[in-house]
Amino acid sequence: MGGNTVAQRLLVVSAHAADFVWRAGGAIATVTRAGGQALVVALSYGERGESGELWAEPGQTVDRVKAIRHEEATRAAEILGAPFRCLDWGDYPLEAGREATEQLAAVIREWAPDVILTHPERDPFNPDHPVAYQATERARQLASGAGVASAFQTVPPAQVLAFEPHQSELCGFVPTTFLDITPVFPLKLRAMEAVASQRYLVAYYTAMAERRANHARRISGDRSIQYAEAFQRLLPQVVRGL
User: Fold this and answer.
1) Scanning 104, 108, 193, 238, which has its CA 20 to 30 A from the CA of 20?
2) Residues forming a β-bridge with 42
3) Half-sphere exposure in the Cβ direction for 188 (13 Å, CA)
4) Closest of 121, 31, 108 to residue 77, by C-alpha
5) What secondary structure does DSSP assign to 59-119, as a single string?
6) Half-sphere exposure of 237 (CA within 13 A, CB side)
7) How many domains does the chain have?
8) Rounded mean pLDDT of the chain?
9) What's the gap between Cα 93 and its chain centre?
10) DSSP conformational letter for 15
11) Residue 60 φ then ψ, to 5°
12) For 68-90, how does the pLDDT look when each residue is reduced to its tens digit (9 = 90+)?
Protein backbone atom coordinates (compact mmCIF):
# COMPACT_ATOMS: atom_id res chain seq x y z
CA MET A 1 0.00 0.00 0.00
CA GLY A 2 2.86 2.37 -0.71
CA GLY A 3 2.49 4.47 -3.86
CA ASN A 4 1.22 2.23 -6.64
CA THR A 5 2.51 -0.93 -4.98
CA VAL A 6 -0.11 -3.47 -3.90
CA ALA A 7 0.65 -5.65 -0.89
CA GLN A 8 1.38 -9.28 -1.69
CA ARG A 9 0.59 -10.62 1.80
CA LEU A 10 -1.84 -8.62 3.88
CA LEU A 11 -2.79 -9.29 7.49
CA VAL A 12 -5.82 -7.54 8.99
CA VAL A 13 -6.20 -7.76 12.77
CA SER A 14 -9.54 -6.66 14.18
CA ALA A 15 -10.85 -6.63 17.73
CA HIS A 16 -14.22 -8.10 16.76
CA ALA A 17 -15.42 -10.43 14.05
CA ALA A 18 -16.83 -7.82 11.65
CA ASP A 19 -14.52 -4.82 12.18
CA PHE A 20 -12.47 -5.71 9.10
CA VAL A 21 -15.47 -5.53 6.78
CA TRP A 22 -16.36 -1.90 7.44
CA ARG A 23 -12.85 -0.53 7.76
CA ALA A 24 -10.68 -2.52 5.36
CA GLY A 25 -12.94 -4.55 3.09
CA GLY A 26 -11.82 -2.59 0.06
CA ALA A 27 -8.15 -2.99 0.92
CA ILE A 28 -8.56 -6.74 1.27
CA ALA A 29 -10.36 -7.07 -2.06
CA THR A 30 -7.77 -4.85 -3.76
CA VAL A 31 -4.96 -7.15 -2.64
CA THR A 32 -6.66 -10.41 -3.54
CA ARG A 33 -7.95 -9.14 -6.88
CA ALA A 34 -4.37 -8.18 -7.80
CA GLY A 35 -3.18 -11.73 -7.09
CA GLY A 36 -1.98 -11.21 -3.53
CA GLN A 37 -3.12 -12.99 -0.38
CA ALA A 38 -4.91 -11.64 2.66
CA LEU A 39 -5.69 -13.12 6.05
CA VAL A 40 -8.29 -11.75 8.45
CA VAL A 41 -7.72 -12.38 12.15
CA ALA A 42 -10.33 -11.35 14.70
CA LEU A 43 -9.36 -11.37 18.35
CA SER A 44 -12.96 -11.96 19.42
CA TYR A 45 -16.38 -12.58 17.94
CA GLY A 46 -17.80 -9.45 19.53
CA GLU A 47 -20.41 -11.69 21.05
CA ARG A 48 -21.10 -9.43 24.03
CA GLY A 49 -20.77 -5.89 22.75
CA GLU A 50 -21.15 -6.08 18.97
CA SER A 51 -24.12 -8.41 18.55
CA GLY A 52 -27.05 -6.55 20.07
CA GLU A 53 -29.52 -7.49 17.35
CA LEU A 54 -28.79 -11.18 17.88
CA TRP A 55 -29.48 -10.88 21.61
CA ALA A 56 -32.99 -9.65 20.83
CA GLU A 57 -33.89 -13.21 19.86
CA PRO A 58 -35.60 -15.19 22.67
CA GLY A 59 -33.46 -17.90 24.26
CA GLN A 60 -30.24 -16.65 22.67
CA THR A 61 -26.93 -18.10 23.96
CA VAL A 62 -23.29 -17.06 23.76
CA ASP A 63 -22.36 -20.16 21.77
CA ARG A 64 -25.11 -19.50 19.24
CA VAL A 65 -24.11 -15.86 18.86
CA LYS A 66 -20.50 -16.90 18.30
CA ALA A 67 -21.58 -19.43 15.67
CA ILE A 68 -23.63 -16.83 13.81
CA ARG A 69 -20.85 -14.27 13.94
CA HIS A 70 -18.34 -16.85 12.72
CA GLU A 71 -20.57 -17.72 9.79
CA GLU A 72 -21.12 -14.08 8.88
CA ALA A 73 -17.45 -13.11 9.13
CA THR A 74 -16.31 -16.18 7.22
CA ARG A 75 -18.75 -15.44 4.42
CA ALA A 76 -17.75 -11.77 4.30
CA ALA A 77 -14.05 -12.65 4.15
CA GLU A 78 -14.70 -15.22 1.42
CA ILE A 79 -16.43 -12.56 -0.69
CA LEU A 80 -13.31 -10.43 -0.34
CA GLY A 81 -11.07 -13.37 -1.20
CA ALA A 82 -9.57 -14.04 2.22
CA PRO A 83 -9.77 -16.71 4.95
CA PHE A 84 -11.12 -15.73 8.36
CA ARG A 85 -9.66 -16.83 11.68
CA CYS A 86 -10.90 -15.93 15.16
CA LEU A 87 -8.68 -16.28 18.22
CA ASP A 88 -11.75 -16.03 20.48
CA TRP A 89 -10.26 -14.02 23.34
CA GLY A 90 -13.65 -12.68 24.43
CA ASP A 91 -14.87 -9.10 24.23
CA TYR A 92 -15.99 -6.19 26.41
CA PRO A 93 -13.45 -6.34 27.84
CA LEU A 94 -10.99 -7.76 25.35
CA GLU A 95 -7.84 -8.71 27.23
CA ALA A 96 -4.44 -9.70 25.87
CA GLY A 97 -1.90 -11.12 28.30
CA ARG A 98 1.43 -12.77 27.48
CA GLU A 99 -0.06 -16.01 26.19
CA ALA A 100 -2.47 -14.18 23.90
CA THR A 101 0.25 -11.87 22.59
CA GLU A 102 2.50 -14.83 21.82
CA GLN A 103 -0.40 -16.51 20.02
CA LEU A 104 -0.83 -13.47 17.77
CA ALA A 105 2.93 -13.21 17.25
CA ALA A 106 2.89 -16.83 16.06
CA VAL A 107 0.20 -15.94 13.52
CA ILE A 108 2.34 -13.08 12.22
CA ARG A 109 5.37 -15.35 11.92
CA GLU A 110 3.29 -17.96 10.14
CA TRP A 111 1.69 -15.53 7.70
CA ALA A 112 4.75 -13.25 7.26
CA PRO A 113 2.77 -10.27 5.95
CA ASP A 114 4.33 -7.31 4.20
CA VAL A 115 1.44 -5.09 5.35
CA ILE A 116 -0.53 -5.19 8.62
CA LEU A 117 -3.77 -3.27 9.14
CA THR A 118 -5.31 -2.82 12.58
CA HIS A 119 -7.10 -0.33 14.82
CA PRO A 120 -5.60 3.03 15.78
CA GLU A 121 -4.14 3.46 19.25
CA ARG A 122 -7.04 5.42 20.77
CA ASP A 123 -10.81 5.05 20.86
CA PRO A 124 -12.78 6.78 23.63
CA PHE A 125 -15.95 4.91 22.73
CA ASN A 126 -14.70 1.35 22.48
CA PRO A 127 -12.55 -0.31 25.18
CA ASP A 128 -11.53 -3.21 22.95
CA HIS A 129 -10.10 -1.39 19.94
CA PRO A 130 -7.04 0.09 21.75
CA VAL A 131 -6.34 -3.34 23.25
CA ALA A 132 -6.34 -4.84 19.75
CA TYR A 133 -3.89 -2.17 18.63
CA GLN A 134 -1.59 -2.79 21.60
CA ALA A 135 -1.68 -6.56 21.13
CA THR A 136 -0.96 -6.24 17.41
CA GLU A 137 1.88 -3.80 17.94
CA ARG A 138 3.55 -5.97 20.60
CA ALA A 139 3.07 -9.12 18.54
CA ARG A 140 4.48 -7.40 15.46
CA GLN A 141 7.59 -6.33 17.34
CA LEU A 142 8.09 -9.82 18.73
CA ALA A 143 7.55 -11.46 15.35
CA SER A 144 10.08 -9.21 13.63
CA GLY A 145 12.59 -9.34 16.48
CA ALA A 146 12.45 -5.54 16.68
CA GLY A 147 14.51 -5.56 13.48
CA VAL A 148 17.53 -7.36 14.92
CA ALA A 149 18.74 -10.96 15.21
CA SER A 150 16.94 -12.85 17.98
CA ALA A 151 16.94 -16.19 19.73
CA PHE A 152 13.55 -17.03 18.20
CA GLN A 153 12.15 -17.20 14.69
CA THR A 154 11.51 -13.82 13.12
CA VAL A 155 10.02 -12.51 9.89
CA PRO A 156 10.86 -9.35 7.90
CA PRO A 157 9.26 -6.20 9.30
CA ALA A 158 5.87 -5.31 7.83
CA GLN A 159 4.41 -1.94 7.00
CA VAL A 160 1.79 -1.04 9.62
CA LEU A 161 -1.25 1.12 9.03
CA ALA A 162 -4.32 1.87 11.09
CA PHE A 163 -7.68 1.60 9.37
CA GLU A 164 -10.27 4.30 9.93
CA PRO A 165 -12.28 4.10 13.16
CA HIS A 166 -15.96 4.94 13.54
CA GLN A 167 -15.23 8.31 15.22
CA SER A 168 -12.08 9.40 13.40
CA GLU A 169 -11.49 12.84 14.88
CA LEU A 170 -11.94 11.60 18.46
CA CYS A 171 -9.45 8.75 17.98
CA GLY A 172 -6.53 10.89 16.84
CA PHE A 173 -6.85 9.35 13.38
CA VAL A 174 -5.13 11.47 10.72
CA PRO A 175 -5.28 9.91 7.23
CA THR A 176 -1.96 9.57 5.45
CA THR A 177 -3.15 7.19 2.72
CA PHE A 178 -6.30 7.10 0.62
CA LEU A 179 -6.93 3.85 -1.23
CA ASP A 180 -9.13 3.93 -4.33
CA ILE A 181 -11.55 1.02 -3.86
CA THR A 182 -13.90 1.95 -6.69
CA PRO A 183 -13.16 -1.21 -8.75
CA VAL A 184 -13.82 -3.49 -5.76
CA PHE A 185 -16.57 -1.58 -3.99
CA PRO A 186 -19.29 -4.01 -5.20
CA LEU A 187 -17.39 -6.76 -3.35
CA LYS A 188 -17.10 -4.64 -0.21
CA LEU A 189 -20.82 -3.91 -0.35
CA ARG A 190 -21.65 -7.60 -0.65
CA ALA A 191 -19.32 -8.36 2.27
CA MET A 192 -20.93 -5.68 4.43
CA GLU A 193 -24.39 -7.00 3.62
CA ALA A 194 -23.27 -10.49 4.68
CA VAL A 195 -22.92 -9.24 8.26
CA ALA A 196 -26.64 -9.31 9.01
CA SER A 197 -26.10 -8.82 12.75
CA GLN A 198 -24.80 -5.28 12.08
CA ARG A 199 -26.53 -4.38 8.85
CA TYR A 200 -27.25 -0.89 10.17
CA LEU A 201 -23.58 -0.04 9.50
CA VAL A 202 -23.79 -0.61 5.73
CA ALA A 203 -25.20 2.84 4.95
CA TYR A 204 -22.74 4.54 7.32
CA TYR A 205 -19.64 2.99 5.76
CA THR A 206 -20.93 3.40 2.22
CA ALA A 207 -21.28 7.12 2.91
CA MET A 208 -17.81 7.20 4.49
CA ALA A 209 -16.31 5.60 1.37
CA GLU A 210 -17.99 8.30 -0.73
CA ARG A 211 -16.66 11.09 1.51
CA ARG A 212 -13.13 9.70 1.45
CA ALA A 213 -13.36 9.42 -2.34
CA ASN A 214 -14.11 13.14 -2.46
CA HIS A 215 -10.94 13.82 -0.48
CA ALA A 216 -8.94 11.46 -2.70
CA ARG A 217 -10.20 13.19 -5.85
CA ARG A 218 -9.20 16.60 -4.55
CA ILE A 219 -5.72 15.38 -3.59
CA SER A 220 -5.02 13.38 -6.74
CA GLY A 221 -7.10 15.09 -9.41
CA ASP A 222 -8.39 11.65 -10.43
CA ARG A 223 -12.09 12.15 -11.03
CA SER A 224 -12.70 8.43 -11.55
CA ILE A 225 -12.44 7.72 -7.81
CA GLN A 226 -15.94 7.11 -6.45
CA TYR A 227 -15.15 5.12 -3.29
CA ALA A 228 -12.06 5.17 -1.07
CA GLU A 229 -10.78 3.94 2.28
CA ALA A 230 -8.50 5.96 4.54
CA PHE A 231 -5.52 4.68 6.49
CA GLN A 232 -2.94 6.17 8.84
CA ARG A 233 0.62 5.01 8.42
CA LEU A 234 2.09 4.12 11.82
CA LEU A 235 5.67 3.50 10.73
CA PRO A 236 7.75 5.57 8.29
CA GLN A 237 7.74 4.35 4.71
CA VAL A 238 11.12 3.54 3.18
CA VAL A 239 11.35 4.55 -0.49
CA ARG A 240 14.02 4.87 -3.18
CA GLY A 241 12.55 8.05 -4.59
CA LEU A 242 9.88 10.65 -3.90
Assistant:
1) 238
2) 14, 86
3) 31
4) 31
5) T--HHHHHHHHHHHHHHHHHHHT--EEE----SSS----HHHHHHHHHHHHHH--SEEEE-
6) 14
7) 1
8) 94
9) 19
10) S
11) -65, 150
12) 999 999 999 999 999 999 999 99
